[in-house]
Amino acid sequence: MSFTTLPKIGMGTFRLKGNDAREAVKSALSLGYRHIDTAQMYENEAEVGDGITSSGIPRRDIFLTTKIWHDKLHASDLINSLHDSLARLKTDHVDLTLIHWPSPGDEVPMEEYLGALRDARREGLTEHIGISNFTCAQMDQAKEILGDTPILTNQVEVHPFLANRKVVEHAQKLGITVTGYMPLAVGKVMEDETLQRIASERNVTPAQIAIAWVASRGVVPIPSSTRPSHQKANLEALKIQLSEDEIRAIDALDRGERIANPGFAPDWD
Ligand SMILES: NC(=O)c1ccc[n+]([C@@H]2O[C@H](COP(=O)([O-])OP(=O)(O)OC[C@H]3O[C@@H](n4cnc5c(N)ncnc54)[C@H](OP(=O)(O)O)[C@@H]3O)[C@@H](O)[C@H]2O)c1
């Protein structure tokens, strides 16, 4: 199967190492996830590959994403590092390759690394290409550089405490699907009173409400969990249809709280 769009939810793997990564991927696939998100920087591509192989689910049925770290953005480094990723993942191609962060301080010109990413697609190393942590201006620049080559997604932080409206709306206007990372604000959503109230009224959990809210905006959530019970609940959250009142109450939780904000991050919108 060749995927033309991103599956509606994915399993994140940041921080999952060794056997935890293997088991989490295997269990997610057995529960019905078909979209796995890893990155060179997570240092778990080999274990993610093991989890996929041992799941018994055919590789062609799984949408697999990896990301190029910002020290591999020169053209030859990018292609070589993607070959290394494929070897660790034990596959001949990924479904999506993302530029994990725009080059800090534009040290490597965007033309160079997006050109290399397009070459990787032409060579069949990746079915689709995309970007991550790109601002509105950087999305415009990327569109300009890539022309007819589609940018499948911009993967950015989205959760009830960081709605990231400007970036989400701009991406959607450009026809770029947004993938929302840290949709549970790394577990903080569980402590929020509004989310707790809505969740208890519906007999679900605040995590499920957060995922349903992300999905209601047309954003693809990629929560991570080591526990099969949480993975199952997160998958089932896609079935929740929030009311307009509930969405308004969750929208009001936006406080611009950014969790992933390293020193090399771009000037956020
Ligand atoms: N592109 C980027 O720069 C970037 C940056 C950060 C993250 N990401 C991607 O986004 C993914 C998600 O982000 P994240 O892993 O940092 O944070 P997250 O998904 O917001 O939160 C993960 C935390 O939530 C807990 N959790 C998961 N499901 C739960 C549930 N149903 N009920 C209660 N707690 C639950 C997990 O604990 P348990 O294990 O105990 O369930 C874990 O501690 C990453 O794994 C990665 O793939 C991308």
UniProtKB/TrEMBL annotation:
Pfam families in alphabetical order: Aldo_ket_red
BP term (GO), one: methylglyoxal catabolic process
Residues annotated as catalytic: Y42 (proton donor)
SUPFAM superfamilies: NAD(P)-linked oxidoreductase (SSF51430)
Swiss-Prot/TrEMBL catalytic activity: hydroxyacetone + NADP(+) = methylglyoxal + NADPH + H(+)
UniProt keyword annotations, A-Z: NADP, Oxidoreductase
Presence of keyword NADP: yes
Protein origin, superkingdom: Bacteria
Domain NADP-dependent oxidoreductase intervals: 8-254
Site (Lowers pKa of active site Tyr): K67
Alphabetized PROSITE patterns for the sequence: ALDOKETO_REDUCTASE_1, ALDOKETO_REDUCTASE_2
Matching PANTHER family: 2,5-DIKETO-D-GLUCONIC ACID REDUCTASE (PTHR43827), NADP-DEPENDENT OXIDOREDUCTASE DOMAIN-CONTAINING PROTEIN (PTHR43827:SF3)
Family according to the record: Belongs to the aldo/keto reductase family.
UniProt protein name: 2,5-diketo-D-gluconate reductase B
Species in which this protein is naturally found: Marinobacter pelagius
